[in-house]
Amino acid sequence: MKIAFIYPRFEKLIESRIELKESGISKKNLGDFSMPPALGIPIMVALTGSEHTTVLYDENIEPINYDDDADLIAVSFFTPQAEYAYKVAQRFREKGKTVIAGGMHPSLMVDEALQYFDAVCIGEVEAVWNQILTDFQNNNLQKTYQQLVENLDTIPFPDRAVFRSKDKYDWTAKLIQVMRGCAYFCENCIIPSEFGKNFRFRSVGKVIDELNLYPISGDYYLIDDTLSLPDEQCEAYRNELFNAFAQLETKPRLFISGSLNMSCKPEFLTMLKNAGVVNLYLVTGADPYSIRALQGDKKFIDMGLNMIETYRNAGIEVYISVGLGFDHQKLSVFDNALDFIQKAKLSTAEFYILTPFPQTRVWHKFRSENRILHYNWSKYNTANVVFKPKHMTEQQLLDGYLKCWNEFYTSISISESLKNFKK
What we know:
By secondary structure, the chain is of the alpha/beta class. The chain folds into two domains: 2-145, Cobalamin-binding domain (Rossmann fold); 173-417, tm_1862 like domain (pyruvate-formate lyase- activating enzyme, Alpha-Beta Horseshoe). The protein has helices at residues 13-16, 18-22, 40-47, 82-94, 104-108, 110-113, 129-137, 191-195, 204-211, 232-246, 266-275, 288-294, 298-313, 333-344, 361-368, 394-411, 414-417, and strands at 2-7, 53-58, 72-76, 98-102, 119-121, 144-145, 174-176, 179-180, 200-201, 219-222, 253-258, 277-284, 317-324, 349-353. The strands form three sheets. Strands 2-1-3-4-5-6 form a six-stranded parallel β-sheet, sandwiched between helices. It has a six-stranded parallel β-sheet with strand order 7-10-11-12-13-14. It has a two-stranded antiparallel sheet with strand order 8-9.
């Protein structure tokens, strides 16, 4: 049996906002990067037995072959890809193919997805993939499949060989997942709805084994934002994990995510550096510290500036992502954000518009207040205003977003901004 995995196209930030291209922002900045699909597809390839063959079509870098002789079509997608995913499914079904869906969007909008797909995998695929294949071969495919993975160590290592023929990605960092679930429920975060509200961790030994599959080289991105949370479970785990990284003879170049409330203690920074951490993706807009800083609170501005300078002095570059349009923000947020970035002397930044992704807290809040403007999923890519803001008009939010991109890139060259991202 042959399985064709499809990763549908989606509008990247710069593609979605022609105003930014017209203003001179280069194509290859952080708003138009191409990266391999998330881990779902390479994990499914790894789970697929050797008696089957697989092929991947990433529509963001290549056309889909609708005449492929695959027996089963598996489409993995998140919300900005949904409109394109549904068109892909329709075309394949017109050719008599069985098409199944998985990923964040169909997991959270099951009834909608079932209008276009023969079956939907809800949530984690690892515990049900073999059952899906067996049922398909026995002509007994169910409408939905759902089962939580209790032990993350049972998940096979991603089969990254599926990307070997793809040479059009701008950044080919290996994505590493070390945990799933989250005990917190931030208003714009989808993790608790997708992976549950309990922390689940891979054993550190298993993570190290994955790194050692091949000679360690290039960039590795620890994709779990939750790893940096000020939580006792997360703290104990990351201490064990980073100390294990530090023992490796050859260290990876690690990229991690975090927020302004991360520790600045010398021993913590030493641990990160010894582990191979070279870059911190600093997400702002929703955590208590950045909320106050972006409101212009001098105490939290100074704390944030000190935190960034401390990380830079430790040899860890900071790349900031600024969320715009939250209910706690007013028109001053745009100037406050640009001023903070300038004072922090950051050379790498991106800006995103708050987007009410399905089943997040803000999704339910905006729906109850009749503030959702439309459900054109292709525009749910954080570069469009799809809801009614609280303290500004839709146009003011869009104008402020464009202002932040344009003004940041008037003083920073693209090459300088991307210096830490090596192809």
